[in-house]
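Fold this complex.
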Amino acid sequence: MALRAVAFLFCCVNAVAAADPSAVGSTNIFAPESTPARSILHLSILVLTVTGTIFAVVSALLVYSISKFRARSASANSEPAQVYGSTQIELAWTIIPILIVVVLFVATARGIHEIQDAPMPANALQVIVIGHQFWWEYRYPQLGVVTANELHIPLSNTAHPRPTFLQLLSADTDHSFWVPVLAGKTDLIPNHPNRLWMDPQHTGIFVGQCAQYCGTQHAKMLLRVSVDSPEGFAEWVREQQRPAIAEERVAVGKRVFETTACINCHSIKGTVANGRFGPDLTHLMSRTTIAAGAALNTPENLRLWIENPDAIKRGSLMPAMQLSKSDRDALVGYLETLR
Amino acid sequence: MSSSAITSPGGQVEEKPWVDVLHEWVTTVDHKRLGILYILYALVFLVLGGIEVLIIRIQLMHSHNDFVSPQVFNRMFTMHGTTMIFFVAMPVLFGFANYLIPLMIGARDMAFPRLNAFSFWLSAFGGLLLYFSFLGGSGLYGAGNAPDVGWWAYAPLTARAFSPGHSSDYWTLALLVSGFGSIGTAINIIATVLCLRCPGMKLTRMPLFAWLNLVMAGMVLIVITPLSAAQIMLLIDRYLGGHFFDAQAGGSAVLWMHFFWIFGHPEVYVLIIPCFAFMSEIIPVFSRKPIFGYPVMVAATVCIGFVSLSVWAHHMFTVGMNSYANSFFAITTMAVGVPTGIKIFNWIGTMWGGRIQFKTPMLFSIAFLFQFLIAGLTGIMLACVPFDWQLSLSYFVVAHFHYVIVGGILFALFGAFYYWYPKMTGRMLNERLGKWHFWLFLIGFHLTFDVMHIPGLLGMPRRIYTYEPGRGWDTLNLIVTIGAFIQAAAILVFVWNLISSYFNGEKAGNDPWDAWTLEWSASSPPLPYNFAKVPVVASRRPLWDLKHPEDPDSQYE
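Structure:
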């Protein structure tokens, strides 16, 4: 019965999750796409079954006792038999829960070990994830790639096993990396490196967001993980490794970028801009969103973002740049070439 | 205190000028008046915290809502959490403990009446200080008013770089000040229970209410200390160039988490154990049977008290502790479920074979049992560390702890209000309004908090002021918001009941529930000195012995 209840719960959750057809990738914890998330699902089925059974038994006892032992008007004046306790019964309802705890603990300890202590294979992709107020920086030390907010990782199936191991750091406050279908969440804490791994078995876009309150715009610190085929990933890496192309027709915009405060915070490889406070813009146009997923990466949104970031993401640390309209247009024109 | 200050409703109070009445209340050291002050003070903050959460719920009604700014939203959830824990739950429970413990153990006051008053006014001042931040928090920086760092105030968000102005200082100082008040009250409860029991009341004959509050007070002494220490360290960091929590200078953000949660988790038990105490008094009386397994209930409570001191880091499974630490805190957390389960079984055992009367206090108690069971089971889920990696910091965990705090603590408190209001005022609360209050609140509660689990399972993190459409969270959040307003309506019914019954309620008499503990032998409301003659007891249920001389409990104990 409890199993059926658990199955029913899954159906409900999945139905709610599937109700919206416009959904960009699921964030349902019961729809795993990667080994850590899948082992958590298996553990959760056990836990839900056990707790479901306990709930059924105890609430049945409770309902029985309130319906069976309600005061009837006939007996209103006499008191029931005064019972003070029973050692045998107390022992029974002490020992049975202890046994249940032992079972759950063993399953939990195994789950912790499987996920947390998994050794990193030699061919694993390593990514350093740095949490910032309110965006994500990704650095691929093996590949010399730096990007932001949209993480690209390769597929890892039985034909090409290649898990991704993330090293989690923070540049300011606490954050938490959470893409529910790939793995449980792990915090990014300054001066306290953490590790998280995933081996997605299907290509696609998987979304998530910061789960640890990190300040004003915690809500719009979104993230997406693009799982690419091995070839697609190699192609993406090649693109990202190239320096920015400086097209002659956008020289004005480039000059605006290089002579204003933009370069204090942003980097563009191959130019003087080497700021680390904001996202690397070398291949800005390869990303589908800006402002950590708060808006789509369109020329209109870029222009609005430069003119008044608060209109897209109130409280973000990007300042309004106070550029003239012609400078702004030139700058957006230049950014548009950063493919 | 003048001994003529017997406040019977509509009686002598009106004959005195209001300044005198006010003066008497402000300078009182009477445990009953201080108890009532604590309770009224908590009710005011309950309304404030409730308004804050309604703002939160309106904002989250649908995706990309623009009711309040992210800054305001963040202040609202910080103030809601801080208010409800420190300035509603703790004072209201201290209020009941203050009022009832001396009456239940046959004493004439608490052990240290002046310390009692001092503690209350410290707590009250702490609450005012917190709310003064709305005016003063901005400081010279114009940097926002009320604190917006969450009620855990994780480092380094509280560092001056991330929290300029004074809002975090108001948070810190408010908790520090009210923490000293809590320590004073805890000392007082311990001394009262250990030293002022009436003749014949051995520890083994003490009402469970006194026992459980004794355990609670012991825990307060232990856990408020690290919280206060952490607040002082934070102040040193912010103003004296300390680096306890400053990760950029070699400090540790994780250190704050340990300090906070070694307070924060036992705090949950500090709040729930007095509610167990209410249950252990109310359920027997309305089942017409003594509590099932009194010694086991005491042992289980003491056991919870000790084990709950070793579970704090289950709030930190996502922080990246090693697998041994994670396993340790998983097993201690699960282990605390055993004595807690024993208590639930014993309450059912008390009802089993009884003649249950479904008066309003009992309705709230039954709902408490049912909801606390669910809260405990979702707690077990959260103790399974890998499962917690998904559930933690999501709306699932928000639903879980509101199940504990609202479904458990608040329901138990409502039961206690209906049960002891006649003793405190001399008048019954209206039973019809009570049923309305109960059913409305029950429906609102389940609409809100049953549904709230699901967005968590669908990946919705807590503390976000808005969310993206298309994740399946919209409808669920709308239902949650509707439930919140139904609960607010129920609270209005309750407040109206408290006020109208005070003036027009049915006269209660000394013992309206035909109960068994000593407070029901005093007049309603009790005289300033409680008992004309100090009672002598021979069993756990002295009034049962009086009412049933042919079959007294003292024969069996």
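The two ends of chain B are 40 Å apart (CA to CA).
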